[in-house]
Amino acid sequence: MPAACLHPRPHDALAMAPPLCRISPFVDIDFALRRQFSKSVFRHPQREIIIAALEGHDVVVQAATGFGKSLCFQLPAVINSGGEPRS
Fold first, then answer.
1. What InterPro entries is this protein classified in (predicted)?
2. pLDDT of res. 19
3. Among 35, 53, 46, which residue's Cα sits nearest to residue 71?
């Protein structure tokens, strides 16, 4: 299993869930942003948040309405599922 995978700790409520893994370390998140969401650039610090989520880190974001928090979690989900976002 790749080193980037996170294994749940035994005391976690979701201990039976499969480990989180980034599919490929070579994902072009800028291309995914343009293709999936028709956006050309990330707002600061969206890129850092997305990279952390893709690397399997626990991420908590507290930001103002309109910051783009949803994108920070939707883009990694789309990349890791390999599919289109659901409508």
1. DEAD/DEAH_box_helicase_dom, P-loop_NTPase
2. 54
3. 46
Nearest to 80 by CA among 34, 39, 19, 38: 19
Mean pLDDT computed over 47-64: 93
CA distances from 40 to 15, 29, 31, 66 (A): 38, 11, 9, 17
What does each C-alpha distance from 77 to 21, 37, 51, 63, 81 come to in angstroms?
Answer: 11, 13, 12, 20, 6
Cβ neighbors of 67 (< 8 A, separation 6 or more) are 43, 61
Lowest model confidence (mean pLDDT) among 7-21, 46-60, 62-76: 7-21
3-state SS assignment for residue 34: helix
Tokens at 10, concatenated: 């035994």
DSSP state of 82: T
3-state SS class at 79: helix
